[in-house]
Amino acid sequence: MARKLLLNNVHIEGIHTYDVYRKNGGYSAVEKALKTMSPDDIVEEVKKSGLRGRGGAGFPTGMKWSFLAKPEGVPRHLLCNADESEPGTFKDRYLMEKIPHLLIEGMILSSFALGANQSYIYIRGEYMFVLRIVEKAIAEAYANGWLGKNILGTGYDLDLSITPGAGAYICGEETALIESLEGKRGNPRMKPPFPAIQGLWQRPTVVNNVETIAAVVPIVNDGGDEYAKIGIGRSTGTKLISASGNVNKPGVYEIELGLSVEEFIYSDQYLGGMKNGKRLKACIPGGSSVPILPHYLVCKTANGEDRLMSYESLADGGFQSGSMLGSGGFIVYDEEQCIVRNTWNFARFYHHESCGQCSPCREGTGWMEKVLHRLEEGHGTLADIDLLWDIQRKIEGNTICPLGDAAAWPVAAAIRHFREEFEWHVNEPKESQIRNYGLVAEKSFQTENA
Amino acid sequence: MSDQIQKFTVTIDGKTVQVDPGTTILNAARMIGGNVVPPAMCYYSSLKGSGGKCRTCLVEVSKGSEKDPRPMPKLVASCSTTVMDGMEVKNKSSEKVLDARKGVVEFLLINHPLDCPVCDQAGECHLQDLAFEHGVGQSRYEFERRTFDKVDLGEYIKLHMTRCILCYRCVYTANQLTDNREHGVLKRGDAAEISTFIEKNLHNDFIGNVIDVCPVGALTDKTFRFRSRVWYTKPMDASCSCDKCSGNAVLWMIGDEIARVTARKDQYGEVKEFICNDCRFNKKEKSQWNIEGPRKISRHSVISANHYEREIPKHTVLLNKA
Questions:
Q1: Does domain B8-43+50-101 sit in CATH 3.10.20.740?
Q2: Is A262 exposed, middle or buried (0-12, 13-18, 19+ CB in 10 A)?
Q3: CATH number, domain at A121?
Q4: Residues of A in contact with B161 (CB under 8 A)
Q5: Is the pLDDT score of B82 beyond 60?
Q6: What mean pLDDT comes out for the span A400-405?
Q7: How far apart are CA A247 and CA A282, in angstroms?
Q8: Long-range contacts of range A127-131, CB-CB < 8 Å, 24 or more positions apart?
Q9: pLDDT value at residue B49
Q10: Do B53 and A363 touch (CB under 8 A)?
Q11: Is the pLDDT reported for residue A116 higher than 50?
Q12: What digits encode the pLDDT tens for the residues A282-313?
């Protein structure tokens, strides 16, 4: 049985309440850290653990923490990015809903390590019911002396508050999150200066994902070296994967990094194979922003090696034949799914969520959506496919924040690996309509052409 | 010795310049001048925080610095990237930059109406210049363009949102020059629009400057709308004594009549001394101004082509006769 670090106690009845959480060893890490460790010790343990950001980019957390500027007399802040809005990703919600105290414990440890006395959790506006759960947990933590003034008599003060967003995907980008938290329009800032130098209210700020912060708890409890033993190579520890799509057992799984993709999809312990015995067509391993992998590249890399659930193995082959671990939104498609329709759906999402600040993303995402919609409806031409390729090429890398890249990559990968299907939509519009929309569409299609 | 600030050496398109640390690539290029200056649609030197949005000023950094000579992986916005010592930048000499810029122009134009023949900005429009220099002749966009109704922002300003390229310059102007934050952006993505606080009219003393900073014809002067093409008017430097602003302005005259008043723009179309609404909209009598002489405008070819102060070259006349 694989080791679980975050979701080990999730099955216990009432673990979301303080009493049950405390009884099962909760807050022992805070006791250990505040009484026996210095802030630098914790940073050192996190560095040793090799923990990498779980929000998508996979940047080493210890290194991020050590970049934090520490000018005299200027308060520092820790922000928790709980604005989880990537299509296909729902791990943070599960974590906060089931064991909110784990996040709070992680927040106390991380804030202590960074010397922050005021920390914030920025939660997605659509997660209002989760906000209530976390709010309640924060109140319990205050009541039991884990938050507030002079925690455990150590003289360390920490205030923790939770703020909901207003329903914008872009606010998951760290600088847009900071703008939004400051009460402004959630537009990403220009970098540099990075938040580690000038973040919230121009103060040094660290923004971390929910899962990253929660992972600090087992690191402090067991030590960084112990954490680094799990996993493979530079991908250490465990990762929450939110699996969805045409599989038998979709849901949130905690895996040890380095598990093979084949085992993850087909073993009964995890996804339990494809639903209804259909064949695998494609897979998006890390949320909608990362490139899609065709069936022949899911379980094996282009070199014929086994593909593993790790930052390196999933990225093997670059964007030509690889993808990214991203935020762990694992989406599986069976043979009946339409890649053109799926790509259009993603393009529609990014069009809707573009903040409209810089021109390539603002205009380009809408354009891609319209061209993809035309292709999907069977009115496209072969030139449209090349046009799409050109549009995505001109968005990628030319925008302020990564949303432009995130909008361009799925389109690029879909065309790269599934060009035949796009061409089929152009050449056989009727058949593609029948497949995607069934007999009703066939009827209306005939009357249209009569 | 220590008070002597060490200068950074930057090379842009093969031309080297010494600049102070903290200078942006765009400003370093402007020190060199001429052909190496990247175009900028949203950066405005006198507005804090502007820039980085339009992506027309993207350049390639082929050498990061003397210490770390690695090139930067992506194109960078020259208006918001500061120089490093020994940095080498490629602007027009890079194929990648020209290609990306072509893309940006195309993106800017897909929702911009082709109404230059009736637009007051034509002739002094930055987007026109940009499209002429960097764009392609034909658009590949075949869908309906986004459109908005025209809105009056107060007594003097008309907002034609359809033409807007969302450079945010007017937002920064309104925030930084006037009291009360009442001019901003609503909605997001390509539905985003410039708007005022719940249809509240703008009547700040300096709000007229949003017309000057607008790179396109989205914000126009209602006292001048549809009166004349700009290249038929004569720009004259003039000043007046004003207790609110410097009083330095440009009068755009039709015969002896003042058609409109704007602030003085430099060669990059940027205003350094903003003028107040009184000077801009109300002083339309010649007696209220002290006219200093004709204004030389170098940026816009269309205005200077028919410049009244220039002698008509003889060969043109000969050609016409032949």
A1: yes
A2: middle
A3: 3.40.50.11540
A4: none
A5: yes
A6: 91
A7: 12
A8: A127/A82, A127/A84, A127/A93, A127/A96, A127/A164, A128/A164, A129/A97, A130/A93, A130/A96, A130/A97, A131/A162, A131/A164
A9: 86
A10: no
A11: yes
A12: 999 999 999 999 999 999 888 888 999 999 99
**A275 — contact with chain B (CB < 8 Å)?**
no
Among the listed residues A288, A317, A291, A292, the one whose alpha carbon sits nearest the alpha carbon of residue A304: A317
Structure confidence at residue B179 (pLDDT): 77
The partner residue sitting opposite B55, judged by closest CB among A168, A353, A358, is A358
B106, B169, B194, best to mutate vs chain A, most A CBs in 10 Å:
B106
Greatest Cα-to-Cα distance within chain B, rounded to the nearest angstrom: 69
Amino acid of residue A70:
K
Q: How far apart are CA A134 and CA A149, in angstroms?
A: 20
Can you tell me which residue has the tokens 């090379």? Answer: B11
Q: Do A162 and A261 fall within a single domain?
A: no
Residue A51, Cβ neighbours under 10 Å: how many? 27
Tell whether the model's pLDDT for residue B254 goes beyond 80.
Answer: yes
Say if residue A144 is in the same domain as residue A202.
yes
- pLDDT surpassing 50 at residue B1: no
Whole-number average pLDDT of chain A: 90
CATH class assigned to B116-304: alpha beta
- The predicted model gives A158-187 an average pLDDT of 92
pLDDT(A442) > 50: no
Q: Is B43 on the interface with A (CB under 8 A)?
A: no
Q: CA-nearest residue of chain A to B51?
A: A190
Closest CA to A372 of A401, A353, A350, A396: A350
> Are A224 and A279 within one domain?
no
Residue B310 pLDDT grade (very low, low, confident, very high; cuts 50, 70, 90): low
- Any A CB within 8 A of B147 CB: no
Of B74, B104, B185, the CB nearest to A359: B104
Contact criterion met (CB below 8 Å) for A331 and A367: no
Interface A:B, Cβ pairs < 8 A: 91
Asked if A160 and A187 sit in the same domain, the reply is: yes
pLDDT at B321: 47
Domain that holds residue A328: 235-334
pLDDT number for residue B230: 86
pTM: 0.90
Both tokens assigned to A372: 């993809």
User: If you average pLDDT over residues B284-310, what whole number do you get?
Assistant: 72
- Whichever domain contains A265, its CATH number is 3.10.20.600
B74 in contact with A at a CB cutoff of 8 Å? Answer: yes
Which amino acid does the sequence have at A195? P
